[in-house]
Design goal:
The protein is α/β, with parallel strands linked by helices and 543 residues long. It has helices at residues 4-7, 10-13, 22-26, 46-57, 73-76, 133-137, 147-160, 185-196, 237-240, 242-247, 297-304, 378-386, 392-400, 444-463, 522-537, and strands at residues 39-42, 62-65, 94-96, 202-203, 251-253, 256-263, 270-277, 280-285, 289-291, 326-329, 332-336, 351-353, 369-373, 405-412, 421-428, 434-439, 468-472, 475-479, 505-507. A hairpin with a 5-residue loop joins strand 15 and strand 16 (434-439). Bound molecules: flavin-adenine dinucleotide (FAD) and iron/sulfur cluster. It comes from Georgenia soli.
């Protein structure tokens, strides 16, 4: 493995004090719409930014187009829950199904860096079993590639973020480049409760610098990771991949909403993307196109991009686009302790267990869940307690008691189902594009996992000495919607993230995941994009 700085100098291209390298952005190369670039990427988040950086390094002419702003953390972000709503994708979307998933702050970001700008920072790997759940567990789907093919890319991205944590005993056991962070009251109680219950819990894995990394400073443990880390200690593509991409000649075109992918009916090849920037329509010509707009916006864009060849949506010959969209069931259980916990005084991601990740044949459900520390700030804490039915005086009493509570969150592996999907609604947005309709319903296995995860969290908190617990059931992490598969009848892209229908069109974001495990997805999304980049630059895949 090469030194990180030799393959990705992003952390060294930031200013020595937290801030934006304006000189780098000012000298960014730009491309004219009429110039046929090698690749145009839609969305500059986890998948899009990683692909852009890799290909720019290899000398490709790349334009990454993002609908949101090119953030300046010092100017645009605040250490305040209410003041951070502009980080979320809040454009209209319609939800439905038996168990509708609320969209917005908990689900997707907008702007250069994507959702990782306000993600928590957990970066676990998927387990090898996640790639073969259909053949081994009889549920979900098998991927067209195996864990081993992703392993080197996991290690590369872990070094580039970088990830801190204890040696990881689950899945494919591995270590991390940075040592584990010290833990706060919340993390200590999780470790103590887990030990009392005979459960193994470990510190990490988090993409938060533990010590100086390039010009990025050490975490200062103030706990505003979900509001955008102004310190630059928490990784997001805005600071981990975009600076190097620009330095190597990529253009990041912010505040530009892509409205359609154009395909030449005659050749069957993508020719570029239409976008709207500050009210002006443009068309960026490109030899190849990659869509990486997140699990809702990617299928939406494909479905909107109809043509004579694709009357039902781009790459939708087999009615696969938008299907198998997944969320993880994410119940959060809080426990009250006599002593003060002050759970907000640390990054929310600290300690996790993956002991319940795999299928346990003694249970009446398949697959499993992970458990992690979460540390709701006051507004989210008010949601947690009001969900118990508390209001008025009692809610005020619980808010005043905030200092005494610790909180754990589970990620349950909800199963992929074809009817959980994105379609187009009748409503349109400001650009005249039909908005996404997202229907979601749980299955019995999902509900059993929720119950099991909640009771383990209650046991852990009781084991640590909690005298009261309260649970709120939530969702986290949308993935799927343009999944990879062995053939066109079962998915939208192949194992290289290339669409089956259009040879020079790729999907390189979380939409391609066929299963989700009970791991947080960002690291896997980046590793898959890095692998696709390798396949393209090595010539193994020719667009
Ligand atoms: C509150 C929260 C906490 C999370 N915590 C974790 C965590 O701890 N660990 C973890 O692994 N994951 C976490 N996640 C999830 C993780 O951030 C996402 O799964 C991941 O960033 C998705 O990557 P992506 O490439 O699919 O999309 P994104 O990173 O969301 O990037 C998509 C980009 O595309 C742009 N875009 C969309 N449509 C268009 C269009 N038509 N034209 C132009 N641009 C467009 C958007 O502006 C966005 O910048 C969290 C997410 C949230 C919201
Ligand atoms: S706790 Fe650390 S990683 Fe989180 S926002 Fe503060 S400095 Fe950044």
């Amino acid at each position: 493995m090469t030194r990180v700085q030799d393959r990705n100098a992003s952390a060294w291209l930031l200013p020595p004090r937290p801030g934006t390298n304006h000189e780098l952005r000012d000298r960014m190369r730009t491309f004219a719409d009429a110039e046929e670039v090698d690749l145009v990427v839609v969305g500059c988040g986890a998948g899009g930014a990683t692909l852009t950086q890799r290909l720019a390094r290899a000398g490709w002419h790349v334009v990454a187009i993002d609908a949101g702003p090119f953030w300046d953390p010092q100017e645009d972000w605040v250490s305040d829950e209410a003041g951070s709503h502009h980080l979320y994708w809040t454009e209209p979307r319609v939800i439905g199904g038996d168990d509708p998933v609320p969209l917005g702050s908990n689900n997707s970001g907008r702007g250069v860096g994507g959702s990782m700008v306000h993600y928590a920072g957990y970066t676990p790997r998927f387990h090898p079993s996640d790639f073969t759940t259909a053949s081994v567990d009889g549920v979900g789907a098998d991927w067209p590639l195996r864990y081993e093919e992703l392993r080197p890319y996991y290690a590369d991205i872990e070094a580039e973020l970088p990830v801190a944590g204890e040696h990881w005993p689950w899945g494919d056991p591995h270590g991390y480049p940075h040592r584990p962070h010290p833990v706060s009251g919340n993390g200590e109680l999780f470790l103590r409760g887990a030990e009392a219950c005979g459960i193994t819990a470990k510190v990490g894995p988090v993409a938060i610098a533990n010590g100086r990394f390039g010009h990025r400073p050490h975490c200062i443990y103030r706990g505003f990771c979900l509001q955008g880390c102004k310190v630059d200690a928490k990784a997001s593509p805005l600071i981990t991949h975009v600076p190097d991409a620009i330095d190597r000649g990529a253009e990041i075109r912010a505040e530009s909403m892509v409205t359609r992918v154009e395909v030449d009916d005659r050749t069957g090849r993508a020719t570029g993307v239409h976008y709207v920037r500050h009210g002006r329509a443009g068309f960026q010509r490109a030899r190849a196109v990659a869509v990486a707009g997140y699990s809702i916006e990617t299928p939406r864009l494909l479905l909107v991009s109809t043509s004579r060849r694709f009357p039902d949506g781009l790459c939708n010959d087999h009615d696969q686009v938008g299907r198998y969209l997944m969320v993880q069931g994410a119940p959060q259980t809080a426990g009250r302790f006599d002593q003060e916990v002050r759970m907000w005084k640390a990054p929310p991601p600290e300690v996790s267990t993956e002991q319940f990740y795999e299928t346990d044949p003694s249970k009446d459900y398949a697959r499993g869940f992970s458990i992690q520390t979460v540390s709701p700030l006051p507004i989210t804490w008010a949601e947690h307690m009001s969900a118990q039915g508390h209001w008025g005086e009692t809610l005020r009493a619980y808010m005043s008691d905030y200092v005494h509570w610790a909180c754990l969150g589970a990620l349950c592996e909800f199963l992929p189902r074809p009817e959980n999907r994105v379609t187009l609604a009748d409503e349109t947005d400001g650009n005249g594009m039909p908005v996404a309709h997202f229907a979601y319903s749980q299955c019995d296995n999902d509900r059993k996992l929720l119950d099991a995860a909640q009771s383990v969290m209650e046991e852990i908190l009781a084991g640590a000495g909690a005298d009261e617990t309260a649970t709120i059931r939530r969702y986290a992490h949308l993935v799927g919607g343009a999944r990879m598969a062995a053939d066109a009848e079962h998915g939208v892209v192949d194992g290289d993230c290339r669409t089956f229908a259009v040879p020079n069109l790729f999907v390189t974001d979380g939409s391609v995941l066929p299963t989700q495990g009970s791991a947080n997805p960002a690291l896997t999304i980046m590793a898959l994009a890095a692998r696709t980049a390798d396949r393209l630059t090595s010539g193994a895949v020719v667009p």
